Amino acid sequence: MKRLGLFWIMVFMCLLAAAQEEALGFVYSGKVRDAQSGKPLQYVNVLIPHTNIATVTNQDGEFTIKAPKKPQYIAFTHVGYKPQRIPVSSDSSAGIRVRLTPSTVVLDDIIVTIDDPKEILYSAMDKIPDNFSNNPERFRCFYRETAQKRQKYIYLSEAVTDMYKTSYTKGVEQDRVAVVKGRRLLSANKKDTLSVKVIGGPTQSVMLDVVKNREFILDKQELELYNLKMEDPVNIDDRPQYVISIEPHLTVQYALFYGRFYIDRQTLSFTRIELSLDTRDRDNATRAMLVKKPVGVKFRPKEMSFLINYRMDNGVTRISYVRSTFRFNCDWKKRLLATSFTAVNEMVVTDREQGQVQPIAKKDAFSNRESLYDMTSNFDDPDFWKDYNIIEPTESLEHGIGKLLKR
Q1: How far does Cα 273 stand from its chain's mean position?
Q2: What is the rounded CA–CA span in Å between residue 138 and residue 352?
């Protein structure tokens, strides 16, 4: 799959993470739940209004956000929910409890004059130069990659990264990522190590920017391979969204995707993209996911899925969050049962540099042939992230870290 081959990275059975920059003096933590069911909400956007500081909730709905100045509010937005601003008080550091209310979308029949998903999607593609940044920009990001053997964590790596992006009228060839600092933790049990290399790595924030990397899937010739369908609309940040699903309808020599595109009804800007690889053809799916494996190991792909979120700020839409999930089994010739593995990497934009920015020098950029594992330090510094904004580790990940540190 030539599109995916552009961003493979050597991964020691997993993927990575990162954080933020200035000395930040105010720290706020909390948990976000569904107001009706009480269930924790994952991947909720958490931001400080009138700044570029942001993060997302983890799989337990928890977050921590840091700021140099005490904010008046912390804002929360999530697909299908009403946005909410929580005032910051003197006791907010003790823990902020947020309950988001599901939103109902009412579409004005006069406004909704187009019901052809292909026409809407192509119009959104044509409006990318109007909706996305036309200037070079530089971002501070947090990146994390983890690997699990069955339910046990066997690897974790995290990093602060810088990301430089050119105008959205250009491709991704000049976009670069640099690792500022990082750390790693690996199981000491030799039985837990498996030198399988799959696509991914810190450069995913560049290559999985589907709106900018148009040849990935937002190519009109490529889209002819799919059936498009209008789904029920949803709200994101109180803005109604068209939702268009895709599924393969032709057979080609590489694996295609199932997915959904969320498009702002008013501006036709892409807001969210969900993609899941069609794994029914095992050979095609393996070629899409796998870079290298040990001799004698059978690789059986189960899932490769991507989530890409974009956020609008003052009329300009930018990438804000990327998550990749890989699930596969590995069989050894002399073993009766296959072993399941899960590799996850996620990147969140935590800040954006203001004014004119300098590109990342090529010599400082992270290569898609490098392994983050080889560039990171030990894990045992409790103040490692200190003033940086990160994605809070989940309860299961914290438990896994504790186990690995005891080995």
Answers
A1: 10
A2: 6
The three-point CA angle 244-204-58 to 5° equals 75
Q: How far apart are CA 165 and CA 205, in angstroms?
A: 10
Give the per-residue pLDDT at 106: 63
Q: How many CB atoms within 10 Å of residue 16?
A: 33
Closest to 339 measured CA to CA, from 293, 390, 288: 293
Nearest 5 degrees, angle CA 287-CA 293-CA 296?
115
pTM equals 0.90
- Residue type for 242, please? Y
Q: Which residues contact 180 (CB under 8 A, 6 or more apart)?
A: 18, 21, 140, 159, 160, 161, 162
| Cα separation, 313 vs 322, whole angstroms | 18
Q: Contact at 8 Å (CB) between 177 and 206?
A: yes
pLDDT digit string, tens, across residues 97-108: 999 999 987 655
Q: Tokens for 90, please give them.
A: 């003197």
Q: What is the DSSP letter of 235?
A: E
CA angle 112, 115, 117 (to 5 degrees): 125
Q: Could you write out the DSSP letters of every residue in 110-157?
A: TT-----HHHHHHHHHHTHHHHB--S-EEEEEEEEEEEEETTEEEEEE
Q: What is the pLDDT of residues 193-228, one digit of tens each?
A: 666 667 678 888 898 999 999 988 999 999 999 999
Of 117, 172, 183, 95, the residue nearest 145 (C-alpha): 183
Q: How many CB atoms lie within 10 A of CB 192?
A: 18
Task: Say if residues 216 and 210 touch (Cβ distance below 8 Å).
Answer: yes
Cβ-based neighbours of 313, under 8 Å, separated by 6 or more: 52
DSSP-derived secondary structure for 262-287: EEETTT--EEEEEEEE--SSHHHHHH
What is the spatial distance between Cα 276 and Cα 289, in angstroms, rounded to a whole number? 12
Band (pLDDT 50/70/90 cuts) for residue 253 is very high
Region at 277 (left for phi over 0; alpha for psi -120 to 50; beta for the rest): beta
